[in-house]
Specification:
heterodimer; A: Cytochrome-c3 Hydrogenase, chain B; B: alpha/beta; Beta Polymerase, domain 2; five-stranded mixed β-sheet
Chain lengths: 404, 160
């Protein structure tokens, strides 16, 4: 058979197919954990450039703080990082306490530590569930939410709110822990290791999960510091920094726990840091429960802290103080502070400036999600588009805090 | 916690160049260095390279109100991952000329912080690689966090 090769026919080649493609991922994409939009420039399936677009959830919270009294601001903080509301409460309240120079009694401090660590476990549970779900392990999500539900019930029993507790108040707590809280908390701690074993088997031991996360989304130690990463993202790059130990607050320095650090710098390393942190948090909760001794949970500062209901019926001055705090608020001395805590996602800093009145002049939240997300383009460039989802999951972002 | 250690950094800053430090405020366990705006890059570069303040923890602006002069301030919260100290550098800006040199060349994290400050307060960071609005839509009029901007805006904002 004699077939002439048609060499003179020009090759069909569409220039536009060869060039790069720009696609928009989000804001309704389920793996962007909210309303994050990414503009991805792709070459085939490889990411060439990433431009995050945020602000879909912007509600002007920082502006709102300036129009609310100090104690009213606590409610707004709940709605920022809605997976870690007690951490937000703590950062805000401690900044105000620093301005007012109010000291919190021992029991109040211990309860704050106890609740914050419970909240950290709850926050990490959502992270684990959604991170695994993004990568394709669906059942983990349900088991994680079952664990989280137990913690939310504990928080609800203490504060009355599941997602929006506003439990920490300037000068102490909203109220003391309810009867039976300790027993329920101990029950949770007793069940917790079995749950963790299950997660280690389901997720950590999963070959697919490991191959999807190892050597993906790498960021070096130097770059991580340049980008201002904090929390598990920074510790996943081999930097030992935990504000609970290095800038201690609420007496964290007296608790015995380790800082998990991984050298990998990839998604897997960040995953391992958070998993190990869960055990450390459980350790802190156990120690805090042992330290719970009867005593006052609010500071002795009648002009700042609301009086007990019972006192108001018996003492005239308590009634006056209550009226003044609620109706006019309390004046905070002039000054400015920056208070940073180790929230579940990293350094949560509050810059608070007062000019002497009952309302702050400026409140700025340095959200860990905001800063960690800004490093995303660096981590995903050169990776496959499917890995973008894994990297976002490993950053553990909450858009409520990014957009504020 | 004393602030003696922090004052050592301030002294080092002074001995390097006296013009860099216009005022030092020590209050509530925190030390603030007020710097003329021309030297902010140099001050930050010195503190980062020579004094170990390798992380920019936060950058935020503040509006003192339209009747004040200087009206704006920009706060740089430096942090060290080596000695874990914090130092606040403050730059004061007037209303007519709210411009300051960008520090993105020193810390990549400053990129979004500066965009946010520009978006909400209208402070212009010179030599910033990509100074666009970040939280508010690109066609938004005005700067929402300024004191003379009403809480509810001028008119109902619509996306259509």
């Amino acid at each position: 058979m004699d077939v002439a090769l048609e060499t003179d026919v020009p090759e069909v080649m569409d220039e536009s197919l060869d060039s790069q493609m720009t696609i928009s991922m989000g804001p309704q994409h389920p793996s962007t954990h909210g309303v994050l939009r990414l503009e991805l420039v792709l070459d085939g399936e490889t990411v060439v450039r990433t431009i995050p677009d945020i602000g879909y959830l912007h509600t002007g919270m920082e502006k709102l703080f300036e129009y609310k009294k100090y104690q009213q601001g606590i409610v707004i903080t709940d709605r920022m990082d809605y997976l870690n509301p007690l951490g937000n409460n703590l950062a805000y309240v401690m900044a105000a306490e620093k301005l007012l120079q109010v000291e919190i009694p021992e029991r109040g401090q211990v309860i704050r530590v106890l609740m914050c660590e419970l909240q950290r476990i709850a926050s990490h549970m959502v992270w684990l569930g959604t991170h695994a779900l993004d990568i394709g392990a669906m059942s983990v999500f349900f088991f994680c939410f079952r664990q989280r539900e137990k913690i939310l019930n504990l928080i609800e029993s203490a504060s009355g709110g599941r997602m929006t507790p506003s439990y920490f108040r300037i000068g102490g707590l909203m109220m003391d822990l309810p009867a039976g809280f300790e027993a329920r908390c101990k029950q949770f701690l007793a069940d917790f290791p079995a749950g963790m074993d299950m997660f280690e088997t389901l997720v950590s031991g999963n070959t697919i999960f490991q191959s999807r996360t190892k050597e993906v989304g790498y960021i070096s130690k130097e770059e991580a510091i340049q980008w201002g990463l904090t929390g598990p993202c920074l510790r996943g790059s081999g930097v030992e920094l935990d504000l609970r130990i290095h800038n201690p607050y609420t007496g964290y320095e007296t608790y015995d726990f380790d800082i998990p650090v991984e050298e990998g710098g990839d998604v897997w390393a960040r995953f391992r840091v958070r998993m190990r942190e869960l055990y450390e948090s459980a350790k802190i909760v156990t120690q805090a429960l042992e330290r719970l001794k009867p005593g006052p949970y609010k500071a002795d500062a009648p002009k700042v802290v609301l009086p007990d209901r019972d006192d108001m019926r018996k003492h005239m001055d308590s009634l006056i103080h209550h009226f003044l705090i609620v109706a006019e608020g309390f004046n905070v001395p002039e000054g400015e502070v920056y208070h940073a805590i180790e929230a579940s996602k990293g350094e949560l800093g509050v810059y608070m400036k007062s000019n002497g009145g009952p309302k702050p002049e400026r409140v700025h939240f340095r959200g860990p999600s905001f800063v960690n997300l800004s490093a995303l383009p660096d981590m995903v460039e050169g990776e496959l588009i499917a890995d973008v989802v894994a990297v976002i999951g490993s950053l553990d972002i909450v858009l409520g805090e990014i957009d504020r | 916690m004393g602030t003696e250690k922090l004052h050592e950094y301030v002294e080092a800053l002074k001995s390097e160049n006296e013009k860099w430090v216009s005022e030092v405020v020590d209050a509530l366990g925190e030390v603030t260095v007020i710097t003329p705006r021309e030297s902010i890059s140099e001050v930050c570069a010195y503190l980062r390279d020579k004094q170990g303040f390798d992380m920019l923890a936060d950058l935020c602006g503040c509006d003192r109100g339209p009747e004040e002069d200087p009206r704006f301030e920009v706060n740089y919260h430096l942090f060290s991952t080596e000695h874990f100290n914090r130092l606040r550098i403050k730059v004061e800006l007037s209303e007519d000329d709210p411009k300051v040199e960008s520090v993105v060349a020193l810390w990549k994290t400053a990129n979004w912080h500066e965009r946010e400050t520009y978006d909400l307060l209208g402070i212009i960071f010179e030599n910033h690689p990509d100074l666009r609005r970040i939280l508010l839509p690109s066609d938004f009029d005005g700067h929402a966090l300024r004191k003379d901007y009403p809480l509810r805006g001028y008119e109902p904002y619509s996306l259509t």
